[in-house]
């Protein structure tokens, strides 16, 4: 009996979930995911290459955009292998090592994206509220330090999570709720006290997501306060238009995140298909939409895209 219990407690595999009871639908979801991932990869790589090659795009706004697109691309790629393998190849089993590695990258990159969005909000604040001091404060070195600080803060905060998962014994079901691994999803399968995991997970959310959200709210409060002080409506709209792409990207990150969290907490009555589709689109879809927003809203990128088509003209 002792040997049997040890075998169960040392379970090293998890089962990822496709569309419950509807395996014939997995192909179409996999096809949609492949299209989303392909568009995300090609679009992000193209714009990153344009920002690197075009000298006139070597400005703070485009450096922050490059950080955001690189993070979006990495976040999508971190979930792609298991999602495609589950929905297309029906390979649903992953080892504990693979699962905790994916947990680390997904949560770390989510924290990095949140931090980059907060840095971009500060950039908008400086553009609108202190335009005369912008060039002296938002330098290339400052942007590099911000990027390094965001990355190190997210890595340092999330780093204990894999160890906290590895220490848990899993002696009940080993079936996860999604086609990729998340900390809270793996934690619920443990047959031991998970209070340490829960407390640390909450602290990590506060130190990363909540802190960044407070920076965003404070920045936009000051931005709107400054904009309301402008007498002309045309000038107000012009000032706000500089932040429109960032506001859209911010909503595309926080709304799906809130939706996923809310569906786990309050959407237990929803169909499993709804949960699966939300989980499938939670990571790649915001990346695609954010890429589209910046491609359409950024004049220089639009001009470059027009030029690459046969017969394209900048004046178009």
UniProtKB/TrEMBL annotation:
Recorded GO CC terms: plasma membrane
Subcellular location(s) per record: Membrane
Primary location group: membrane
Any Gene Ontology biological process: cellular response to lipid
Matches recorded under Pfam families: 7tm_4 (PF13853)
Membrane-topology annotation of the record: Multi-pass membrane protein
Keywords, in A-Z order: G-protein coupled receptor, Membrane, Olfaction, Receptor, Sensory transduction, Transducer, Transmembrane, Transmembrane helix
Name the record gives this protein: G-protein coupled receptors family 1 profile domain-containing protein
Organism placement in taxonomy: Eukaryota, Metazoa, Chordata, Craniata, Vertebrata
